[in-house]
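pinned: reference chain
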Amino acid sequence: MVDWDNLRIFLEAVRAGNYTHAAKRLRIDRTTVGRRLERLERDLGAPLFEQGEDGYHPTEAGRRALQAADDVTRIIEGMIEDLEGIGAPERRELRLAVSSELGAEFMPQIARFLEGSNQVKVSMRSTPDPADSVTRRKSDIGLCLSDSPPAYVRARKIGRLRQAGYATAPYLDRRGRGLKPQDYEWIRFSGWTQAPAMRRWDSLFSDNVQAVAHVDTWQALRAAVEAGIGAGFMWTFAADADPRFVQIAPADESLGVDLWTAVRDDVPADPAITQLLRFLETELAIPS
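pinned: its structure tokens
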């Protein structure tokens, strides 16, 4: 007979990535985690982990046990959510990694998600490679920019993002409206930025285009354009919705890049992760 408590510890060990982190989440010692998982393997009659090139992963038996544990957890959490008068459950913290080239553009959507959920809190981090953050278990969900599905994760394409040249109305009044794009002063990216989409944008500039400033982050680019320092390539979905920006150069299809959600492919998505994923895939859907 399988002890549910051992199965629950197994599920938490896979989600946490190792026994030490699982022990901290469960508020027990690491030795207890190992002993309980050994007992679970004896009860099931099969090993639950196997070693790979990048660490330990669930075996086939482990993946089936994970799915069963995940199903039971969903039922229990659904019951708790439906019952009244038992007090609010502790908020589940989700770690969301966002491509550094997106900055805080999706913060309004995250705010709406949190307003509608009393069970989840979100910890966001900006990183050049959200998929890598997910595979290393530093984040639960990634919002990635990539021309192809990110490797080693379960990815779903939300849409395709495009860029075009923009400036503010005060800058255009000062510099002149209706000029050719190369006649404006541009904010360019420094050569050592870790953001590949930024380097792609900057590759369109010829040497005779006047650069009035160089930046290395999306936040700095947006702030510089907002301040009227010069023109810059910006995400069309964000700039077109902001009345302060005027498009001065058309979107170039070669600059398009796909937006993906990413989660680990060897860990069942718990209800909180599933809830946030569905929200992101609906709210951030952008036509290809």
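why pinned: The mean pLDDT is 83. The first helix runs from residue 4 to 16.
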